[in-house]
Amino acid sequence: MKVDSVDLFYLRMPNVLDIGDGSQDALLVRVRSGNFEGWGEAEASPLTSIASWIAPMSHSACHPVIDSVLGERIDSVEDIERISLKVRTNSFYGIIQSNLTFSGVEIALWDLLGQVKEQPIYKLLGYKTSEKKLPYASVLFGDTPEETLNKAKAMRKVGFSAMKFGWGPFGRGSVEIDSAHVHAAREGLGKDGHLLIDAGTVFNEDLEAAAARLPMLKSANVMWFEEPFAAAAISAYGKLAKMDPGVKLAGGEGAHNPLDAQTLIDHGGVGFIQIDTGYIGGIGPAYRVAQYATARGVQFVNHTFTSQSALAASLHPYAGLKDSWITEYPMEPKQLCVDLTVDKIEMGADGMISAPDAPGLGVTINVDAIGKYVVDAEIKVEGKVLYSTPTL
Amino acid sequence: MKVDSVDLFYLRMPNVLDIGDGSQDALLVRVRSGNFEGWGEAEASPLTSIASWIAPMSHSACHPVIDSVLGERIDSVEDIERISLKVRTNSFYGIIQSNLTFSGVEIALWDLLGQVKEQPIYKLLGYKTSEKKLPYASVLFGDTPEETLNKAKAMRKVGFSAMKFGWGPFGRGSVEIDSAHVHAAREGLGKDGHLLIDAGTVFNEDLEAAAARLPMLKSANVMWFEEPFAAAAISAYGKLAKMDPGVKLAGGEGAHNPLDAQTLIDHGGVGFIQIDTGYIGGIGPAYRVAQYATARGVQFVNHTFTSQSALAASLHPYAGLKDSWITEYPMEPKQLCVDLTVDKIEMGADGMISAPDAPGLGVTINVDAIGKYVVDAEIKVEGKVLYSTPTL
């Protein structure tokens, strides 16, 4: 079989707001080969990514992604690895958006291969089982500690025993204010729950400011302290980790290739590595990081805040790993992401979820429902149309 | 003063070949404020970068670059830093091409500020002098050691006492073949010259293959061993550096923010950090790396293979540093890059070059000569034209 066609779709909500909610638009990829079809999503600026798909070549290391994908053989997992390597080799300089763009394409190739082989992706990866994961609820801090307390209580009531608070006022005022929020979150969650704190890179590279938060995080028994620094601030991570903070560091959502994640493990000292399959290059690179992390006693966690198909793509790479038992679950996605799939990865009676058992990703794109979100876009160079929105 | 307009131009040669020559196209940026004008270039896929400039916002951390630049105050160096931080804060997730795109904009802002203050950029950066640098000639290995020998002899004859050989057959066959090439280069250059070897990331992450080349590199008295691994393979760099190879490692052209370069210094153990001003975010980030490197005994070197204006932009950030005394000089750029500027940074009778003393970058874009290279491009979303090629 060959990759007969690859179509990129830019979907978005009627109104996109200037808020930290990545579910307001989507870059959806459809791959076809013979009578089979696969779908994937990238966590990336749709228009920029579409341009990287078709941009005219600049030189031998700056090819558009399409050059390495269309017409390629696709019969096995090795073919996907070969195509990935081709993209890296042909697009590594001057077109770094290609890493993100290809993530969606790569996921679609796995989904397609799963349809052909009638196997869920986790089995194609070599896992025998799809282990249960504990979903955590991810929410913003309230504007006041009281609001944070109430949010935590509400989440607990819905059934979440693990929750993550982040962003909002955290790190923007005094340590005392942060502490009040963190302890309010702990109070609302209860002593037995897993509490995660996400600084959202607020300290950039400021080691001292991040370190000042450690004692109160420890006293609230926080399980991880996420993204205190900018994604690339490896040395700051490493120094904070060496302070023996009594709370593990988490990070990695900014990794746009597996080596970035390995550097954060090797030199950043994180205890949890958080990977977005739609950002790091797809299923293969995410799986590689999961194996690398596990071998070093680091827990792998997905980073997912959009759709159920993105959630499925993020679960397969570590489906079979028992030691990596927690998972980010998109809590309040916009209607676009709700409508995107026919099915949903539901929590069981025990509150746990796992990677689906149906072929490929295991969730089905709801083609009939998403037409209204498709954005009409066109890119022309010297009068020639290089991209126009394909038909769903 | 305010940033009144920013215009992005996609320039290219009539025929772009699938070869390792980045001078075949260019992303040129023009910034205007009042009666002043500044120019900059990014080392980036032009069309992809243009898309990142105007792509509709996806969420609060995925703004197009234009949102952080147009209409901003531009009176001082601090304003450029403020705008840079704004871009990083507003565009750090899902639109990583923005790092490259903004490099060209940032350089244009410095050029403009230099016109306003009637100062060369290196003085705006705080340097008192523009130190002389030794330009090295950068060429590909020949297909045979004899060819490599002849290339080295020819370069020496033209006057280069420092030269870099790379790519071609290197690392693709046996150590013996590589050794024959490296020793042929040394023979052609002469005992007293500076010989640099560029592996062009050929070993990807293969520590053993790279290490096997060390003894012959040492025996040929090679000054640096450049990019043995993929840019992000920090741990592989670090392990190779710890082998006490007798030859210093060089790398960094893939750094698309200053933290990437710092990680390569801190954990990759390089002795030379090679920065492309048009890739790392512009003059400010390159200057920051130059200072960081110098404080740690690491030499800063530019990475430049295109135009004279790119060369000027790459010289200013380390103009005043005496210890960083070598510079990459674009040898055989395509006509587009020759025509791009009115003036040229010429070698003195002593074979040395230095950052220009004229205001801003110190080289002038040849607006009359480049019109024929401008590519007509258009990007439309929902019928609205977000980009069309501006008038030169």
TrEMBL record, chains A, B:
Residues 145-247 form the Mandelate racemase/muconate lactonizing enzyme C-terminal domain. SMART domains: MR_MLE. Transmembrane segments: none annotated. InterPro entries: DgoD-like, Enolase-like_C_sf, Enolase-like_N, Enolase_C-like, Mandelate_racemase_C, Mandelate_racemase_N_dom. Pfam families: MR_MLE_C, MR_MLE_N. This is Unannotated protein. It comes from freshwater metagenome.
